[in-house]
Write a structure and sequence with these properties.
By secondary structure, this protein is an alpha/beta fold. It folds into two domains: 135 residues, Nucleotidyltransferase, domain 5; 167 residues, 2-Layer Sandwich (Nucleotidyltransferase, domain 5), CATH 3.30.420. The protein is built from ten helices and ten strands. The strands form two sheets. The protein has a five-stranded mixed sheet, with helices on both faces. Strands 8-7-6-9-10 form a five-stranded mixed sheet, sandwiched between helices. A hairpin with a 4-residue loop joins strand 1 and strand 2. The chain is globular and about 65 Å long. The C terminus is likely disordered.
């Protein structure tokens, strides 16, 4: 079964075709990063406009790369939530029209579930159940992936996600967009123990995340240094920030795996490209005898191959939509919270 996936939740217009959820036949991304760089971050209205301009060309290129025609596709999968509402609407509207015109099933995909599916594309032995650690600009979550379409939340961010913290601290340090990449690069020459950064104390669920206090601390530190004319070593600060976030994610992931009985952990999301996070989780899993899965750097960020992959499993589970499908700026994952015992 060949699924065409469309991803437009932020500033990447992406289309891919994936066979049986595991084999990439084509994977095309039209990036807007250089255009948004001058503004220091993504401008939602500009992103939506560029999606409108790019999407037809990207679809045609993906079909051409796969040496296929639209009628050869078995289904159209699309990110419908969460993300920038205008950007999502472009992808959803196009996918609905494409599915209707071609007589193909329309398959809605949650963006976070899509990130988890990135590992299926490179690890043929990875199958649920496993512990998913999804770390990106908008989401930081630990979930029990009990089957391909069921995610039981163990911990989630209460405010800023890890990627958002990286980007906002990077902006305060004067690094260009996308900031997380520049933090990682500068961290390679810095001392990770140079700055003692605050760790949030979580009441209630110990597996939840909070990075807003860390972000505020770093931004205030930089502003204060600027006001008194003090120089801050940005390589040391980058290294300290990276180590801090990597340690928090790793500690919670390992603790959750032990408590809920998982010996396989799958890391995914944009921040899974961060070298500090990858190294920390690799070392901890090796120490505990856990198996760690993580996608190659090319599949860590937003892409349509992951959406097509998850779309395949959604279709097998009977998750399809009609022309009433709408984009949603925010939406929780399916399933129950294992810690809070509440519906989400």
């Amino acid at each position: 079964m060949r699924i065409l996936g469309i991803e437009s939740s932020c500033d990447e217009t992406a289309v891919a075709i994936v066979e049986d959820g595991r084999k990439i036949l084509s994977n095309v991304i039209a990036s807007q990063a250089s255009e948004h760089q001058k503004y220091g971050g993504v401008v939602p209205e500009l992103a939506s406009r560029r999606h409108l301009e790019n999407i037809l060309t990207v679809v045609k290129e993906a079909l051409s790369d796969a040496d296929m025609e639209l009628e050869d596709v078995d289904g159209i999968a699309v990110t419908f939530a969460p993300g920038l509402i205008g950007a999502l609407l472009v992808g959803v509207s196009f996918a609905k029209g494409l599915a209707l015109a071609a007589g193909k099933p329309l398959i809605p995909v949650h963006h976070t579930e899509g990130h988890a599916a990135a590992n299926y594309l490179v690890h043929p032995d990875l199958k649920p159940p496993y512990l998913g650690v999804i770390v990106s600009g908008g989401h930081t979550r630990i979930a029990a992936v009990t089957d391909y379409t069921t995610f039981q939340t163990i911990g989630r961010t209460r405010d800023d996600a890890a990627g958002e913290c990286f980007d906002k601290c990077a902006r305060a340090m004067g690094f260009p967009y996308p900031g997380g990449l520049h933090v990682d690069q500068n961290a390679q020459q810095g001392n990770p123990l140079a700055f003692k950064l605050p760790k949030s104390k979580m009441e209630g669920n110990p597996y939840d995340f909070s990075f807003s206090g860390l972000k505020t601390y770093v931004v205030n530190l930089l502003h204060h240094a600027d006001q008194i004319g003090e120089a801050i070593n940005k390589q040391d600060l980058s290294a300290s920030l990276q180590k801090h976030i990597a340690d928090v994610v790793t500690e919670k992931a390992i603790a959750a795996a032990k408590e809920f009985g998982y010996r396989s952990i799958a890391l995914s999301g944009g921040v899974s490209a961060n070298s500090g996070v990858r190294r920390a989780l690799e070392a901890a899993c090796q120490k505990e005898g856990f198996t760690l899965y993580q996608p190659p750097i090319a599949l860590c960020g937003d892409n349509a191959a992951m959406i097509a992959s998850q779309g395949y499993y959604n279709y097998l589970a009977g998750i399809t939509a009609d022309e009433s499908l709408n984009a949603m700026a925010s939406k929780e994952l399916h399933g129950e919270s294992l810690v809070r015992n509440e519906r989400i």
